[in-house]
C-alpha cells in the first residue's frame, strides 16, 4: 500500500519542480528556523532567458497571515542553490496552529511574478510528505530536519490547505 501511495502522491500532471527545506524548532527561544537549501527542475517560466526563481515563505497562524519573508532571486536557472536561513517567532503553545507556506515564483520585472509551485507544511499541510516533515520536526526539537518536497499547483494547495487561501 505504501508504494501505491508514494506513486500516487508524486503523480502530478505537470512536474513543477522540487524544493529542499530544513526545519528546526527551538522551544526555549520560541523560534521556528527554516533553511531554504535549494530547488531543482523548476518549471521554466521565461523560455527566452530561463527563470529567475525565488521562494516566498509565509507564516500563517490558524488562518491569519503573520509574517512574509523571501529568498533572493537567482538569475537564469531552474536548479537554484539558496542556502538561506529564516527565523520566525512562534511560541510553543502556538506551534500546533502554525503553517508555513512556501511559494516559488519566477522573478519578473515587467509584470507580476510568475507562479511556479507551492507547498504548505504545518497545521494545514498540503500533503502526506509535508505533514510527515512537520511531524518529524515536532518530534526532534533543536535538530534540523531536512526533506525534499515536490511542488504543487496553487489550485491543489487551495483545495487541500486552508492556509494556502490566506496568502498571495
Automatic annotation (TrEMBL):
InterPro entries listed in its UniProt record: C2_dom, C2_domain_sf, Synaptotagmin, Syt17_C2B
Location of the C2 domain: 15-149
Coiled coil location: none
Superkingdom, natural source: Eukaryota
This protein's UniProt keywords: Differentiation, Repeat
One term of GO molecular function: calcium-dependent phospholipid binding
Alphabetical list of PROSITE patterns matching this protein: C2
One Gene Ontology cellular component: exocytic vesicle
Pfam families: C2
A biological-process GO annotation: cell differentiation
Cross-referenced SUPFAM superfamilies: C2 domain (Calcium/lipid-binding domain, CaLB)
PANTHER family linked to this entry: SYNAPTOTAGMIN, SYNAPTOTAGMIN-17
Similarity section: Belongs to the synaptotagmin family.
Protein name listed in UniProt: Synaptotagmin-17
Organism: Microcebus murinus
Amino acid at each position: 500500500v505504501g508504494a501505491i501511495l508514494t506513486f500516487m502522491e508524486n503523480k502530478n500532471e505537470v512536474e513543477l519542480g522540487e524544493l529542499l527545506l530544513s526545519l528546526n524548532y527551538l522551544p526555549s527561544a520560541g523560534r521556528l528556523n527554516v533553511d531554504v537549501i535549494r530547488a531543482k527542475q523548476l518549471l521554466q517560466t521565461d523560455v527566452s532567458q530561463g527563470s529567475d526563481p525565488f521562494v516566498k515563505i509565509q507564516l500563517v497562524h490558524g488562518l491569519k497571515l503573520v509574517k512574509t519573508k523571501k529568498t533572493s532571486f537567482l538569475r537564469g536557472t531552474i536548479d537554484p542553490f539558496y542556502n538561506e536561513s529564516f527565523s520566525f517567532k512562534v511560541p510553543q503553545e502556538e506551534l500546533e496552529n502554525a503553517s508555513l507556506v512556501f511559494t516559488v515564483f519566477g522573478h519578473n520585472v515587467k509584470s507580476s511574478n510568475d507562479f511556479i509551485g507551492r507547498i504548505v507544511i504545518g497545521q494545514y499541510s498540503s500533503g502526506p510528505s509535508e505533514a510527515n516533515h512537520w511531524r518529524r520536526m515536532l518530534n526532534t526539537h533543536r535538530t534540523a530536519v531536512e526533506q525534499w518536497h515536490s511542488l504543487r499547483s496553487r489550485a491543489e494547495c487551495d483545495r487541500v490547505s486552508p492556509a494556502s487561501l490566506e496568502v498571495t
